[in-house]
Design goal:
The protein has one domain. Helix content is 71%, strand content 0%. The protein contains six helices and no strands. Helix 1 packs antiparallel against helix 6, helix 3 packs antiparallel against helix 4 and helix 4 packs antiparallel against helix 6. The protein is elongated and about 80 Å long. The C terminus is likely disordered.
């Protein structure tokens, strides 16, 4: 038994609104997480960003599916429901795969960060200009996370002194002028552990966002097909009443 036109319109409207809302939330969340990882890409590497980037792409695709569903509302063909369902299944499978991928990255992030951080630190030690962009990046990290070097202030032994950022003293202005402060207390912990904890936290958030998006969209998908059955029942009842009246 076919579905009534009014029931179809109600079904498609509710589905597209819910689906579009989930896509917008996913887009904002994944974009924010990419930013949180991107700002420390020189220290933690770019590999940890890939699951978040994939999640952002899924948000864009989800928005596209919602838009296509909205554009095809007038046609009222059930084939569109089937095609949309197939696309949603693919999106959910990819999002769940993104969750698994993010958990794998979360488990191995310490190895990736250790290699990237050590290499970048050795590269920065060769710089003699305090206004060099790499030196400034390290200064900001050491001030923000209250740390010194990779494993501690002993990492600066080859240089003969620790930078003032190991005491919490940053650049005096936006032009990164030389530091002018007495270093009375040097941070004893290295930046490896704080950055490792930070990266793990952000990657875990990516994984949980991917899992939540998959569950939410499965729920929307199930709601849609529940309403399809509901509309069929209404159509069947109306047809039966019409036959009995005749």
């Amino acid at each position: 038994m076919g579905l009534s036109t009014n029931c179809w319109k109600y079904l498609v409207l509710i589905f597209n609104v819910l689906f579009a809302m989930s896509a917008v939330v996913l887009f904002g969340a994944s974009g924010f997480l990419i930013y949180k990882l991107f700002i420390y890409r020189h220290f933690i590497g770019v590999n940890v960003e890939y699951p978040a980037i994939l999640l952002l792409m899924m948000a864009i695709i989800t928005c596209s599916i919602a838009w296509i569903g909205w554009r095809t509302t007038k046609s009222m063909h059930q084939i569109h429901v089937i095609i949309t369902g197939i696309l949603i299944v693919l999106v959910v499978v990819i999002e769940f795969s993104c969750f698994v991928w993010a958990m794998v990255v979360w488990d191995n992030v310490e190895i990736d960060i250790k290699s990237t951080l050590s290499h970048y630190f050795e590269h920065t030690l060769t710089k003699t200009d305090n206004t060099d962009v790499d030196v400034i990046r390290w200064d900001r990290i050491q001030v923000k996370f209250e740390c010194c070097g990779v494993s501690g202030p002993s990492d600066y032994t080859s240089k003969g002194h620790v930078p003032f950022s190991c005491c919490g003293q940053g650049p005096l202005d936006s032009l990164h002028k030389p530091y002018a402060a007495d270093c009375s207390m040097v941070y004893q912990r290295g930046c490896g552990k704080p950055l490792h904890s930070y990266a793990r936290q952000q990657v875990l958030m990516v994984a949980m966002t991917a899992l939540a998006a998959a569950i939410l969209q499965v729920s929307v998908f199930g709601f849609k097909y529940y309403k399809v059955d509901y509309c069929r029942e209404i159509s069947a009842e109306k047809s039966l009443q019409c036959i009995e009246w005749r």
